[in-house]
Specification:
single chain, alpha/beta, FAD/NAD(P)-binding domain, Flavocytochrome C3, Chain A, domain 1, Methane Monooxygenase Hydroxylase, Chain G, domain 1, five-stranded parallel sheet, four-stranded antiparallel sheet, 19 strands, globular, binds flavin-adenine dinucleotide
Length: about 475
C-alpha cells in the first residue's frame, strides 16, 4: 500500500526524480507511462550539463550566454538561480552516484556547445550523459524509503476539490480507470516534440501534461517558443530521430551543403556554434535545397570513444561517420513554453505544481541555451521538492471532488496529419498565412492534441515579430 496522501509526481524523468528525492521524508508517489527510464527524454540527453565549474568561468558568464541565446526574453531572477546553483547541482548528482568524465589528472572534462563562450559542459560516458544520470537517479529513488513508483499508467485527468488540485486520474494499459489522491500534484511530464513529424524526443513527449493543466484552467506561457535541434540523423519517414549531438560541432565537426560548402560560414560570427535557432533555420533551408550534412571525419578513430551513442546510431544505418558525412535534418527538440510557474514551481492553480520541460518559469527565454535543461530539471526539481517537504497532508474534506479528464486522443491517421501540419507551420520558419490555415485544420480535429496545437498556433500567430526560436518570414 502507498503511504497515505503522498505528494503525487507525474513523470519519472530528471525533473520528477529530482523533486521526488528533494521531498524526503514526505511520502511521494511517482507515476509514469513506462518502467525505469523508458519514455523519458532525460535518458536520451547526450551533450551534458552546463555549469560554470571550469577555471576562470563564472555564473555571470553562464547567465549572459543563457540570456543571449534566449534573445533576452528570459526571466533574469530565474537565470541567476539556475546559473548560481549549477555547480551545486553537479556535486549533488555526484553524491547520487553519477560519475562525470575526467581527464588523466582527475579534472572534469568540459565540452563546448553552441551559444557558450567557452567549454562549460560536464558529461558522463562521453555522449551518454542522460543515461548515466538517470541510472543513478533511478537507483537513488529505488533505495529511498519515502518514494513509491507506479509505472505503465497514463495520467489522463486531474482531480479538484474546492478549486484545489488534490489528485489525478489513472488509465492503465488494460483500460482500468482509477483516481489517486495526494496532498499536492507535480507535473513533470516533459516536452511536446511528439506533436511534430520529426523530433529528437521520445513519442511519450506529447504534451499530455501541458494539455491537462490547460484544461483544468492553469495559465500557460510562451507556447510559441519551440526549439528545433539542427542536427538529428536524417532518416526518411521516421518520427523519433536519433540526435547528432552539438558537442560534435564543439569538437570541430562542420555543417556542409550537398557540394561540400560550409553552411554556417558568413551566417553568424560563431559559425557552426551559433545559437540553435540560427543553425536550425540554415539547415532547414539547406534540406529544402538538396540536403545538409555534418562532416566529422576529423575526429577519426576517436569518434567511437568520444561519441559512442551517435557512432552506434550512424553505423546502424550504414553510415561510418569517421569517413562519411552524416545526413542531418532539424527536429523538434525542446519546448521553452509550458505551464506557467513561479520560481518555486507553483502554477496558477492551487495544489498544482510543474517542473522540468513541461513548466515555463521563463528561464530559457525565447530559445534555450544548450545543456541548460538537465540543469533546470535538477535545480528546479530539488527546489520544488524542498518547498513541498513541509506541506501537511490534506484535511479530510466534506465536499465532493471534481474530475477533469483529458479529451480522447486523436486516431492514428489524424495524429500523423497533425504532426505534419505542426512541422510545416510551427517549424523553424513560420508564416501567418500558413499558421492561420493550420489553425482552421486543427479546430476541426476532435482529440486533445488538436486543442493543444491550436493553443500553440494561436500564441505563434499573436507574436507578430520574430524572436529567438519563433521566426516569421512575414
Ligand atoms: C535526444 C535528446 C538529447 C538531449 N540532450 C540534452 C543535453 O545534452 N543537455 C540538456 O540539458 N538537455 C538535453 N536534452 C533536453 C532534456 O533531455 C529534456 O529537456 C529533459 O530531460 C526533460 O526532463 P523532464 O524530466 O522534464 O522530462 P522527461 O525526461 O521527458 O520525463 C517525462 C516523464 O513523464 C512521463 N509522462 C509523460 N506524460 C505522462 C502521462 N500523461 N502520464 C504519466 N506519465 C507521463 C514519461 O513517461 C516520463 O517518465 C535533450 C533532449 C533529447 C530528446
Amino acid at each position: 500500500m502507498n503511504a497515505p496522501d503522498p505528494v503525487l509526481i507525474v513523470g519519472g524523468g530528471i525533473a520528477g526524480l529530482s523533486a521526488a528525492l528533494g521531498v524526503a521524508p514526505t511520502p511521494v508517489l511517482v507515476l509514469s507511462r513506462a518502467q525505469g527510464v523508458k519514455g523519458a527524454a532525460s535518458a536520451m540527453a547526450q551533450g551534458g550539463i552546463a555549469a560554470a565549474i571550469g577555471e576562470g568561468d563564472h555564473p555571470a558568464d553562464h547567465a549572459r550566454d543563457t540570456c543571449v541565446a534566449g534573445s533576452h526574453h528570459n526571466d533574469l531572477a530565474m537565470v541567476d538561480i539556475l546559473t548560481q546553483s549549477a555547480v551545486d547541482a553537479v556535486h549533488w548528482l555526484e553524491q547520487q552516484g553519477v560519475v562525470f568524465d575526467r581527464d588523466a589528472e582527475g579534472r572534469l572534462q568540459l565540452g563546448r556547445e553552441g551559444g557558450h563562450d567557452r567549454s562549460r559542459i560536464v558529461h558522463a560516458g562521453g555522449d551518454a550523459t542522460g543515461a548515466k544520470v538517470m541510472q543513478a537517479l533511478v537507483a537513488a529513488a529505488r533505495s529511498a524509503p519515502h518514494i513509491q513508483r507506479r509505472a505503465d499508467v497514463d495520467v489522463d485527468g486531474l482531480v479538484l476539490r474546492d478549486g484545489r488540485v488534490c489528485g489525478v486520474c489513472l488509465l492503465e494499459a488494460d483500460g482500468t480507470r482509477s483516481v489517486v489522491h495526494g496532498r499536492a500534484v507535480i507535473l513533470a511530464t516533459g516536452g511536446i516534440g511528439g506533436l511534430f513529424a520529426q523530433t529528437s524526443n521520445p513519442a511519450d513527449a506529447d504534451g499530455s501534461g501541458l494539455a491537462l493543466a490547460i484544461q483544468a484552467g492553469a495559465a500557460a506561457r510562451d507556447l510559441e517558443f519551440v526549439q528545433f535541434h539542427p542536427t538529428a540523423l536524417a532518416i526518411p519517414g521516421v518520427h523519433s530521430l536519433p540526435l547528432v549531438t552539438e558537442a560534435l560541432r564543439g569538437a570541430g565537426a562542420r555543417l556542409l551543403d550537398e557540394v561540400g560548402n560550409s553552411l554556417m560560414d558568413g551566417v553568424h560570427p560563431l559559425a557552426d556554434l551559433a545559437p540553435r535557432d540560427v543553425v536550425a533555420r540554415r539547415v532547414w533551408r539547406a534540406c529544402r535545397e538538396g540536403g545538409a550534412w555534418l562532416d566529422a571525419h576529423m575526429l577519426g578513430a576517436s569518434f567511437p570513444k568520444q561519441f559512442p551513442t551517435v557512432f552506434q546510431a550512424c553505423m546502424a544505418r550504414g553510415i561510418d561517420p569517421r569517413v562519411q558525412p552524416i545526413p542531418v535534418t532539424p527536429a523538434a527538440h525542446f519546448h521553452m513554453g509550458g505551464v506557467a510557474t513561479d520560481a518555486e514551481g507553483r502554477t496558477s492553480l492551487p495544489g498544482l505544481y510543474a517542473v522540468g520541460e513541461v513548466a515555463c518559469n521563463g528561464v530559457h527565454g525565447a530559445n534555450r541555451l544548450a545543456s541548460n535543461s538537465l540543469l533546470e530539471g535538477v535545480v528546479c526539481g530539488r527546489r520544488l521538492g524542498q518547498l513541498l517537504r513541509d506541506m501537511p497532508p490534506a484535511e479530510a474534506a466534506e465536499s465532493h471532488y471534481q474530475v477533469l479528464r483529458r479529451k480522447p486522443s486523436l486516431d492514428a491517421a489524424s495524429l500523423l496529419h497533425l504532426r505534419d501540419l505542426m512541422m510545416q507551420t510551427m517549424g523553424p520558419v513560420r508564416s501567418g498565412a500558413a499558421m492561420h490555415a493550420a489553425l482552421a485544420d486543427c479546430a476541426a480535429m476532435d482529440g486533445w492534441q488538436g486543442t493543444l496545437a491550436q493553443m500553440m498556433l494561436q500564441a505563434a500567430i499573436a507574436r507578430q515579430q520574430s524572436l529567438g526560436a519563433h521566426y516569421r518570414v512575414d
